[in-house]
Structures are given as C-alpha cells and as structure tokens.
Amino acid sequence: MIKTIVSYVKEYKIYSLLCPIFVVIEITMDVLIPYLMSLIIDKGIRLGSRDDIMKYGIYLIITVVIAFLSGMISGYLATKASAGLAKNLRFAIFKNIQDFAFEDIESFSTGSLITRMTTDVQNIQASYQMANRLALRAPLLLIFAMIMSFNIHFSLSLTFMFTFPVLILGLAYIISHAHPLFVKIFKTYDDLNTMVSENLLGIRVVKSFVKEDHEIEKFHSLSKKLFRLYTKVSKLMAYAMPIMMLSTYVASLLIAYFGTGHILEGTLTTGQLVSLINYAVQIQISLMMLSFVVVQFIISRNSAERVVEVLNTKTGLDKNIDGLTEVKDGSIEFNAVCFSYLHDNSKYVLKDINFSISSGDSVGIIGPTGSSKSTLISLIPRLYDADCGVVSVGGINVKDYNLKNLRDAVSVVLQKNTLFSGSILDNLKWGDVNATLDQVQEAAKLAQAHNFIMDTENGYDTKVDRGGANFSGGQRQRLSIARSLLKNPKILILDDSTSALDNETEKKIIDGLNKFRPDLTKIIISQRINSLKNTDYILVVDKGRINKIGTHQELLDTNEIYQDIAKTQIGGDFDA
C-alpha cells in the first residue's frame, strides 16, 4: 500500500530526496544551541569574560540563522513534494474512475468517491509532508539530544528517562482508541457526501414531495453523528498536550533537583545544568512530535487504504486497445444473450435474448417498468458485458472492437440528460470537438433544437448553467440528441429521451432522421405508443425476456402486454 502511494510522487521525488538533508542540518543546529548557551554561561557570564560572551554569542546567532533557514527550506521542499503527490493521486483516481465500467462505479457510492478524492488525499498529503519533516526530525532530535545530554552528565541524564513510560503509555492509549474512531469518521463522511449529492441531484423531487424537512433531518442526523465522533477524538487528542507538559515539567524538576547537588559537588556547572534542562525539553518535544506523526499516520493509513482500493480497481471491461477500429454498419444481433448485475446465473435480469436489427432500421422497445429495457441496450456499446451469448454490431462481436471506436459508433441518449457548464456550442461539440458551426447547426436542426437556440440571447454562445438548469426538460433532451448526432454514429439509441417532447416535435425528429440519415439504425425505448407506432417493428420486453416482436398493428392485434399499455393511452398519449 505505501509503495503504491509513494510511487505517485514521480517528478516531485527530488524534493523528497533533498528535504532530509536540510532537516539534518536543522536538527544539528537545534542541539548545538543549548551547548553554546552553556558555554556563554560557564565561560562568559560566570568568569566575567566579555570576549567569550561575544564569541559564543556570534556562534549562537549563526547557529540560529542556519537552523531557521534550513527549517524554511525543508518545509518548502516537504510542502512541494506532498502537494505534488496529492495532485498526482487526485489525477490518477479521477482517470481511473473514467475507465470504470458501470458496475465498478456502482460498487462505490458517489459520496465515497468524492471523499476519497478530496479528504482522503488531503490526509495522505499531510502525512507525506510529516514524513518528509517531522517523521525524520522527531527521532533525530531525540537521538541527538540524548547523545548531547549523556555526553554532559551520564547519570543525571538517566533521571528524566523515568518520565518516558508515563509519556509512552499515555500516547499509546490515545493512539489505540483514536484509530477505530477515525474509521467511523471516514465512513460517516462518505454517507454525508452521498446524502448531499443525492439531495442536490434530486432537489426537484424533494421540493415536489415537500420533503425538505425530511432531508434536513437526515443531514442533521449525520452531522450530529460526525460531531459526536470528532468530539470523542478531540477529547482523546486533548490529553496529549497535558501528558507531554507533565512529563517535561517532571523531567526538568528532577534534573534541577539532582543537578543542584552535582553543582555543589563540583561535578556539574550551571551552564551544563541549563543545557541539560533544554535537552530534556527537546527530548520530550521529539516524543510529542512522534506521537503526532503516529496519529496522522493512523488517519492516513485508513485514507491510503481507501485510495488504493480505487486505484487498484481495474475495470472488468477489456478495452481491447488492439481491437477493430471500424464499425462497418449499424446492424445488431443478440444471440442467446443473458446478463446479471451480480454475475450470478441464478439472478439473470436478461435471459435468452435473441433478435436481429438490420442497418438503417427503426426499432422500438417497450415493456413494463423494471423489465430491463435499458439494461438490454446497455450491452450494445458495452456499458455492461453480457454474461453469456454474443452481442454483435456490424456482424462482429462487440468485444472484438476497440472499445472507444465501438462507443463512437453507438450514441446513447438518456432520459436524464446531463449538460455541462459552458456554452451551448461547447456542449454540442462533445459529440465532435472538430465540428464546424455548420455541422453543429445541422445536427441541432435535425434534433429540432436550432430554433430555440437562436431565440436565446447569444444563440450558440449562450451559457449553460450547471446541469442545464436554465433550460427546460424538452430543450435539454433536444440538445442531447443533437450532441449525439454530431458523433455521426452508426446506431442511435433514444432511451426514453423524448419523454419531455410533444408528439409533433418527436415526429419531426424521427422523420428528419429517416430522411437525412437513412443508414442510421435507430432504437427508441419508450412507454408512449405514439413514439413507437411508426417504427419498422417493436420489441416487447417483459421480465428480462423478449415477449414478442412485431409491427405496431401486429402487436395491437395479438400481444396482451402491448394491448394493455395501449389501452391506458387511448385518448391520451396514444391516438388509436
């Protein structure tokens, strides 16, 4: 795990390598300061030598300046290296998520992925910064200070060793109890982020059902849980400073008490006693720094595990980089296809699917809610892979194509269409970044979007709010269809993506596609009979199986499921 995380330091490795050099210089200067102070006291003040006071005072100033500069440089290098690591980690996580199959994305919640890319990466960044400075500074300061104190007076130096057990046991208790609390904190963060994300995405539904108070209560409940957990951790961490201060004061008092006797005996000077007290404080501080490092490492260990989990999640979909790059036409064939989200043959949501579509055909798909219509068409661009059987496009197994080229040939327009911040033109050019304005306008005209675009204040340069909030549902659907047409696909799948359009506008779109894109295979999923009755034929899907295939009139005459759907729409969406 650590090896995986550190491997992302990459181009910032030089900062990590240089940082310890300046940390060593800083620590060396720090432990020299008490020694120089003892010389000023013993050789200067006690003997009344102004020259020695001046000489060792200059040495002391130089030492302090070097320590200060080394600390600044090592801090800069540690910050640069840790910030670089965080940048690379965030990029790697985001890039890997873009490669996820749908089932990979669904194995993590949206909130969890956001937390891992933000909070968890920040924790790792803080730990790596500590690893570059404090993780080296603390043990070196401990070792150097102990060497200097033992060199001054071995037996007296042993006295403050008696405070170690109190400090170490206290910190061990804090660390052991803090770890499980941090695990719970990160889980609660995931839940909170997921809840907020779902609320914002479904804010219209929340308001439609007047569930604001319910959502506020859910948020408040999670916030209180997070508050309680953080309070517990804070209480534990609050004990650390008093424990350290107690140990420091006790050590200083012991040294002062026993040191006075040694001064009277002539085996210790006043300056040496002062330096011993300073070294005792440095030793206690180094132990305290080590405790902070350990606590931060505990936090980051949980974060690192969560980040590595995402980085190590490799999509089950083979991109087939060396696969076929050209899709000959838009013909489609399903041969004995079955599929399970759990890859469990006892829980298939699609079973024994067999049908074929010729290139240029217009095909409708209808069926009761939950009959797996959307899952069926998701197998064509390999948003999911079939568990058995073969899905073919252009007479070739979809798995034999380069995944990017296959998806370029298949455009899927969903009911819940997402528009991105930017201009209308920017959004439409997602279909083809190199498209000319004429090509963009042609696609918009086919999608019946051109007129309302031109009615906006800035036409194709009109700004799109986040999620397309400044456009109606029907306008967003037409823009999404135009965007998909710009890909110049061989297959266009409209997954209930004309639900917000009136019958006349929808008919104009379909008629335009039949006239100007005759070779384009069109698959329309809808519960509206009017949307499907003019297609070449219709697939009736029920409980994950193909119930019947036929034209509108054939199904109206012979298929019970189709008849039931039609009866609910006569005089409404369906004109008999």
Describe the structure.
- With 576 residues, this protein is α/β, with parallel strands linked by helices.
- It has helices at 2-6, 13-45, 50-99, 102-107, 110-132, 134-152, 154-157, 164-201, 203-208, 212-238, 240-265, 270-311, 373-378, 403-409, 424-428, 437-446, 450-454, 473-485, 503-516, 529-532, 552-558, 560-567, and strands at 332-339, 350-357, 362-366, 388-393, 396-397, 410-414, 422-423, 463-464, 491-495, 521-525, 537-542, 545-550.
- The protein has a six-stranded mixed beta sheet. Strands 2-1-4-5 form a four-stranded antiparallel beta sheet, with no helix packed on it.
- Strand 4 and strand 5 (396-397) form a beta hairpin.
- Residues 17-297 form the ABC transmembrane type-1 domain.
- One of its GO terms (molecular function) is ATP binding.
- It is found in: Cell membrane.
Low-confidence stretches: none
Calculate the terminal CA-CA distance, rounded to whole Å: 64 Å
Number of beta-strand segments: 12
**What is the name of the CATH topology of the largest domain?**
ABC transporter transmembrane region fold
Q: Note the main sheet.
A: 6 strands, mixed
